[in-house]
Specification:
There is one protein chain. The protein has 7 helices and 5 strands, in the order αβββββαααααα. It has 245 residues and is an alpha+beta fold.
C-alpha cells in the first residue's frame, strides 16, 4: 500500500466516524438526504430511488440512484463521502444478481420492479457454508481474470478448487459466492464461467497422452501396409455322366 492509499484510507475512516454509512448495494431502495443551500438558508431534501450501481473506491467511491419522476426516469450520482449528504437510509432490500442495473433504463411499470429480498424474522438466516470439496489436485484459479492469490485462497476455503466447479455454477450459487466474498459482481463482470470452460478445454487437451496417438497412427499405417488377401478360386465341379438309355 502506497502513502496515497494509506492517507485516503485514514481519511475515509475519519469521515465514517462522523456520518455512519449503511451497507447497501445495487437493487436496494435508498433515501439520500441532501443538503440544499438557498442563499443564506440551508435545508435538507430527500432523494429516494433504486441504487443501480456503485463505482470507484476509497474517497472517490460513488453510487447512482434512479427514480421515476412524473413518468420520466431521473438518475443522480452521489459521492459516498460527500459533505453535502446528511444521511443515507436503506428503505428496501432488493434481490438482484448484477452489479450494474442499467437495464432498468429500458423498462417501465411492473417490468422495472425489483423483487424484495425477504429476511427470516425470529430465526437467524443460515450462513452460506460453501461447496463440497472434490477429490484431486486443485487447479490454478489465478489463471481466471481478477483472481489473485488472496482471492484464490478464499475460494478454496469455500470448496472451489477446480475450473469445472466454477464453470457449472448456477445463478443462485454465483449470487451466494459474490455476497459471501463481497466481489461486487466480479464473477459476471470478468466472465469467470466462460473463462473456466476455456481453461478446462486447454487442460483436457494437455492431458491427452502423445503415446496413445502415436500407437493409433502406427496401427492405421500397419493396417494399410498389409496386402489384401486374394479371393479363393472356386473349384470346378466334375461334369455329370450321361444316363444310359
Amino acid at each position: 500500500m502506497n502513502i496515497i492509499e494509506q492517507l485516503e484510507k485514514e481519511q475515509a475512516a475519519a469521515l465514517s466516524k462522523k456520518r455512519k454509512i449503511p451497507e447497501f448495494g445495487p437493487g436496494d431502495t435508498v433515501r439520500v438526504n441532501v443538503k440544499v443551500v438557498e442563499g443564506e438558508r440551508t435545508r435538507v431534501q430527500a432523494y429516494e430511488g433504486v441504487c443501480i450501481g456503485r463505482a470507484g473506491g476509497g474517497l472517490n467511491e460513488n453510487f447512482t440512484v434512479r427514480k421515476i419522476s412524473y413518468g420520466e426516469g431521473v438518475e443522480r450520482v452521489f459521492p459516498v463521502h460527500s459533505p453535502l449528504i446528511e444521511s443515507i437510509e436503506v428503505v428496501r432490500r432488493g434481490r438482484v444478481r448484477r452489479a450494474k442495473l442499467y437495464y432498468l433504463r429500458g423498462l417501465r411499470g411492473k417490468a422495472a420492479r425489483i423483487t424484495e429480498r425477504q429476511e427470516v424474522r425470529g430465526k437467524k438466516a443460515e450462513a452460506f457454508k460453501g461447496f463440497t470439496r472434490p477429490k484431486g489436485e486443485p487447479d490454478d484459479l489465478k489463471l481466471i481474470p481478477g483472481v489473485g492469490q488472496e482471492l484464490e485462497h478464499k475460494l478454496n476455503k469455500l470448496g472451489l478448487i477446480k475450473f469445472e466447479q466454477i464453470a457449472n455454477l448456477s445463478d443462485d450459487e454465483i449470487a451466494k459466492v459474490d455476497e459471501a466474498l463481497k466481489l461486487n459482481g466480479a464473477i459476471e463482470n470478468n466472465d469467470w464461467v466462460a473463462k473456466s470452460v476455456e481453461l478446462m478445454a486447454e487442460t483436457t487437451a494437455d492431458e491427452v497422452p502423445a503415446q496413445d496417438e502415436e500407437e493409433t497412427e502406427g496401427d492405421d499405417a500397419a493396417a494399410e501396409a498389409k496386402p489384401a488377401k486374394a479371393p479363393k478360386a472356386k473349384e470346378a465341379k466334375p461334369a455329370k455322366k450321361p444316363k444310359k438309355g
